[in-house]
Design a protein that fits this description.
By secondary structure, this protein is mainly β. The protein contains no helices and 16 strands.
Length: 185
């Protein structure tokens, strides 16, 4: 089942529960809901994909079934301060602009993520801490993906093959500690 494009756009909703049978949230499904602060996704969720500009202002725990956070899914969610991923997350892709210009302060990237695409966390001024789960499968950190943030320290997983240009450009909190883990054979 899908929550279709613009289904709940411009409604006065403060909280919503996404039923477990929903597999996709289409673009702009909850856009322009300035009062929406909390989204609960049921524990046995079958959600796989969150599309472009699906939400406006929220706090969310992404269920383990989600494999893709697509382009601009949370772009400019100005009140989004906390994103958590459920235990055993199957997330593989954080697409372009997925969390850009949000107020996220900390993010723990699930181990199955292989690509953090261009501008994924661009201009997240409050983002100070980024961590990667053990046994990370991350291969690509895209251009400008963490630029214009307040990241203080980064420990890059050994699985990373490409760190594209300007990935950490203008990190105002950066204290000069960038650690690249040794590749284990």
């Amino acid at each position: 089942s899908t929550i279709n494009e613009s289904s709940f756009t411009k409604m006065i909703i403060e909280s919503i529960t996404i039923p477990s049978q929903i597999t996709q949230i289409d673009q702009s499904s909850f856009a322009l809901n300035k009062n929406l602060k909390n989204i609960k996704i049921e524990n046995d969720s079958q959600l796989k994909s969150i599309k472009t500009n699906a939400f406006y202002n929220i706090s969310i725990t992404i269920p383990s079934s989600v494999t893709r956070i697509e382009k601009s899914a949370f772009l400019m969610c100005s009140n989004l301060e906390k994103v958590e991923f459920a235990k055993n997350s199957q997330l593989k892709l954080i697409d372009k602009y997925a969390f850009s210009s949000t107020r996220i302060e900390e993010i723990i990237i699930p181990s199955h993520v292989t690509c953090i695409d261009k501008y994924a966390f661009y201009n997240c001024n409050c983002l100070k801490t980024i961590k990667f789960e053990n046994k990370s499968k991350l291969k690509i950190i895209g251009s400008f993906s963490f630029s214009f943030t307040s990241i203080e320290k980064v420990i890059i997983p050994s699985s990373v093959l490409y760190i594209e240009s300007n990935s950490f450009y203008n990190c105002s909190g950066f204290k000069g500690e960038l650690v690249l883990k040794k590749i284990h054979h």
